[in-house]
């Protein structure tokens, strides 16, 4: 594996990086459970809202991907972030269970609409500009910026709350959404190939939906990469247990936020490196992903607060694998339903994440969080095995062999 130079900083890259940063620059994220609790919601009521959020994204993931192949992608992105910002604003205008539910519904729709649509828009724009080879560095840097924006939002949440309470936190969160919508409207709508259909409207939507699922079923390389990308994305579910693990391993509560921030930093580095990695061989992918198993095991069984360093490196490698598998998938797609296929991977990640949470809930009845984290090393080794057997023979930098050259405006 070699490391390429950074991406050429062009308008496409700047738009993407700005949009991805604003999407995660939301200081409300770590404080909304407290907001709900302060307005009388019980733990079970808050859990029901989280279920609504997850189910909304789950149900709309693939259908919204088909919309991304059929409609203006920049308008979908702008609408999605405006919708989420409106939901957040509603929480502060009229706080209560049902307005919180509407906000989560808007948030879930936003997650579904942006999943697949953003990557497809940027990929097609770079292809149209003759700069398709820069997609990896551009998207890798974008994911790193997204993670750093998340970290920034976490660090800003406390000071903003002290300065202006929930009102200031909400204003900054809504403002970031409005700025994100403006950024989305600055994207062009590049030429792209679309699924042919004798009739428009719903029939064309259905044809696009079927075309995306059909390519996943028909093209073995696409199916395999969808599965690898989905499983790797779902492995990030483990980060929900990092605060509990740090506390269990003896960290003081005041130190836990710092320890939890380290995996976020490692993940951003992993994303950055993945975008610049060229010529990734099957052996390199296997060894890199396989290293996450021992690293998780060492960190979990250290029973020391600084064992989080080992776990953070493993988390960074997982993020590296997520970005690299996403690059392989984009290059493997040859049909017109790019956003639909990318959303299939997102849907698979949602399904797998639910599975991990159910397994974790069961496992925690017989073991502690350190034991649970140790057991997570086994699926990491399984995923490494999949990369060995399913890694494409071509390198990640090599474009798809037979990409259509005719486009229609969409």
From the spread of the alpha carbons, the general shape counts as: globular
Helix content: over 70%
Radius of gyration based on Cα positions: 21 Å
Strand neighbour order, sheet with most strands: 1-2
How many individual helices?
Answer: 17
Average of pLDDT: 79
Distance between the termini: 37 Å
Note the beta-strand portion: under 5%
What are the low-pLDDT stretches, counting only 5+ consecutive residues below 50? 195-200, 394-410
Main sheet summary: 2 strands, antiparallel
Q: Let me know the number of strands.
A: 2
Topology:
Layout lengths: L1 E2 L7 H14 L7 H7 L4 H28 L2 H21 L3 H18 L2 H12 L6 H51 L15 H18 L1 H15 L7 H7 L7 H21 E2 L3 H9 L1 H10 L6 H25 L5 H26 L5 H7 L1 H14 L20
Antiparallel strand pairs: 1-2
Helix pairs in contact: 1-7, 3-5, 3-8, 3-15, 4-5, 4-7, 6-15, 7-11, 8-9, 8-15, 9-14, 9-15, 9-17, 10-11, 11-14, 12-17, 13-14, 13-16, 13-17
Task: Describe it.
The chain is mainly α and 410 residues long. Helix content is 74%, strand content 1%. It has helices at residues 11-24, 32-38, 43-70, 73-93, 97-114, 117-128, 135-185, 201-218, 220-234, 242-248, 256-276, 282-290, 292-301, 308-332, 338-363, 369-375, 377-390; strands at residues 2-3, 277-278. Strands 1-2 form a two-stranded antiparallel sheet. Helix 9 packs antiparallel against helix 17 (377-390). The chain is globular and about 50 Å long. The relative contact order is 0.15. The model is unreliable at 195-200 and 394-410 (pLDDT under 50).
């Amino acid at each position: 594996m070699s490391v390429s130079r950074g991406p050429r900083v062009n308008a496409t890259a700047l738009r993407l990086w700005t949009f991805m940063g604003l999407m995660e620059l939301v200081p409300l994220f770590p404080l909304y459970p407290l907001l709900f609790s302060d307005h009388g919601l019980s733990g079970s009521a808050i859990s029901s809202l989280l279920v609504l959020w997850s189910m909304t994204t789950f149900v709309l993931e693939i259908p919204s991907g088909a919309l991304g192949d059929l409609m203006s992608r920049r308008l979908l992105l702008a609408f999605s972030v405006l919708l989420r910002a409106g939901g957040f604003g509603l929480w502060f205008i009229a706080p209560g269970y049902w307005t919180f539910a509407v906000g989560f519904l808007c948030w879930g729709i936003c997650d579904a609409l942006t999943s697949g649509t953003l990557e497809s828009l940027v990929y097609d724009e770079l292809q149209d500009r003759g700069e398709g080879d820069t997609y990896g560095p551009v998207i890798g840097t974008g994911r790193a910026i997204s993670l750093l924006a998340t970290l920034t939002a976490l660090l800003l949440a406390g000071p903003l709350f002290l300065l202006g309470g929930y009102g200031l936190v909400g204003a900054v969160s809504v403002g970031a959404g409005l700025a994100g919508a403006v950024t989305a409207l600055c994207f062009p709508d590049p030429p792209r190939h679309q699924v042919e259909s004798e009739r428009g409207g719903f029939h064309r939507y259905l044809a696009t939906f079927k075309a995306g699922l059909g390519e996943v079923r028909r093209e073995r390389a696409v199916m395999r990469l969808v599965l690898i990308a989905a499983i790797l994305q779902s492995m990030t579910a483990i980060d929900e247990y990092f605060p509990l693990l740090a506390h269990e391993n003896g960290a003081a509560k005041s130190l836990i936020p710092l320890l939890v921030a380290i995996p976020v930093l490692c993940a951003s580095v992993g994303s950055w490196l993945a975008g610049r990695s060229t010529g990734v061989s099957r052996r390199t992918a296997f060894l890199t992903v396989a290293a996450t198993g021992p690293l998780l095991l060492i960190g979990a069984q250290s029973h020391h607060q600084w064992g989080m360093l080992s776990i953070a490196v493993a988390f960074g490698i997982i993020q590296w694998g997520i970005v690299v598998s996403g690059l392989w998938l984009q290059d493997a797609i040859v049909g017109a339903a790019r956003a639909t296929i990318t959303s299939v991977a997102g849907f698979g990640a949602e399904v797998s994440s639910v599975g991990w949470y159910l397994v974790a809930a069961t496992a925690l009845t017989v073991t502690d969080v350190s034991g649970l984290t140790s057991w997570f090393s086994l699926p990491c080794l399984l995923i490494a095995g999949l990369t060995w057997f399913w890694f494409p023979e071509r390198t990640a930098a090599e474009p798809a062999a037979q990409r259509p050259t005719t486009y229609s405006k969409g």
